[in-house]
Amino acid sequence: MLPSSTVENYLKAIYVGETHLTGGEQLVPMGQLAGALGIAPGTATTMVKALSESGLVVYEPYNGVRLTAAGQKLAARVLRRHRLIELFLVQVVGMKWDEVHDDAEQMEHVVSDRLIERIDEMLGQPEVDPHGDPIPTADGQLPHRTLESLLTCPLHTPVTVARVTDQDAAFLRFIESHNLKPGQTIEVEARDDVSDSVRLKGANNALMTIGARAASKLLVTG
Amino acid sequence: MLPSSTVENYLKAIYVGETHLTGGEQLVPMGQLAGALGIAPGTATTMVKALSESGLVVYEPYNGVRLTAAGQKLAARVLRRHRLIELFLVQVVGMKWDEVHDDAEQMEHVVSDRLIERIDEMLGQPEVDPHGDPIPTADGQLPHRTLESLLTCPLHTPVTVARVTDQDAAFLRFIESHNLKPGQTIEVEARDDVSDSVRLKGANNALMTIGARAASKLLVTG
DNA sequence: GATTTAATTTTGATTACTCAAAATTGACAA
DNA sequence: TTGTCAATTTTGAGTAATCAAAATTAAATC
Ligand SMILES: [Mn+2]
Ligand SMILES: [Mn+2]
Ligand SMILES: [Mn+2]
Ligand SMILES: [Mn+2]
Hints:
CATH class of one domain in chain A: Mainly Beta
Structural class of chain A: alpha+beta
Bound molecules: manganese (II) ion
Oligomer: homodimer
Radius of gyration of chain A: 19 Å
CATH superfamily of one domain in chain A: Ferrous iron transport protein A (FeoA)
Largest interface: A-B, 19 and 19 residues
CATH architecture of one domain in chain A: Roll
CATH topology of one domain in chain A: SH3 type barrels
Shape of chain A: globular
Order of helices and strands of chain A: HHHEEHHHEEHEEEHE
Distance between the termini of chain A: 46 Å
């Protein structure tokens, strides 16, 4: 049976959820999964039990869910498609980086393997999407770079924005308008815990202050 | 309520079915509709009754179905998307004309209006798709050219292939390999009712004979 | 250890879409 | 006019996905 769009979305959400796990955690909690998919918790439970029957996930009642090897392979395929499509829409079609997420969210389920291969070829086997998110390889490996956020990187040291971990269109437009897109070089001038803010020097030496919450979503390389 | 992919497919099939109606016929028979969609006849009846409730079609039991103005508007929108996407995949992505139908069949339901507009713009508001099928305008008009088929056009007279009315990949590859794609100039040398065939002179003066059934699917302009 | 609470699961129901097979209809032919 | 038949509709049933609200569980608090 080929997986439905719904199943693909569940697997992808679990896959992404797993990458967010910190410390010794192994399982994505049902609440987090339901939240990520925008569905009722009971629905997630029912569905995950079905996925478990199909051998795509391991489900531990009251603890959470994780992917099997089979589930991981499918999830990586969907995520690869999503990110290739996003980059394609920006690079080839000329859409803006804050416009492409929703289209990719739908197209990832329906375009043919042939079209995805063609896109990958046109883009020259890219490694990251327009937001700096890594693109899983054709054989299902997710390249991992260790990145620091603007909350943890060294002060007074030039760093390059590598990734923006928030798909919200308004946030992305804010980032763009302040010249903080991936590829741009910036410097953290100061951090202030009391005011919960981070002071930055942008590409054009422009100074700006952003909240810690926003700063945590900007990942950089040294 | 925005229409589901299923509803869009029904409306599109009725729309296309209506254009195939000859003579005084007004209604698309349920059998033809079910056949076009690859579903059981009873399913079509049930669904059409629901579409009728929604005001998208007029349903006459035992006679057939036709679109209301509202249904026509939606159907034209889907067909426009389908054909723009096909042309985009050929012109921009570099896929072959026999590969694009299935991708378009799915993408037509999910891509955003913004992406469709961008595609229309990139292609310069095209009037026909890769198979010569007319593209409905943004306001829902389907441009109509009167075309003759190779069964009815004059003999020994140069004509230009304008449209191929069969999406089957093998058929399209046959047409392409014999230099009979839209735009190419050919001439009908002879028709033979007994052998059910048509003799052609191709672009390169190559002679070939094709069956009447195939010939009827090649539409030309004088 | 008992109690409260938050997360999770279960229950019961709904919507959308589908099929196979039985019943019906309407057109045509005998 | 009646019988036949093909097309169509109806019936009964099933799958996939969803929700709201009740019940349960496990963990944290008292
Ligand atoms: Mn999706
Ligand atoms: Mn992205
Ligand atoms: Mn379709
Ligand atoms: Mn076409």
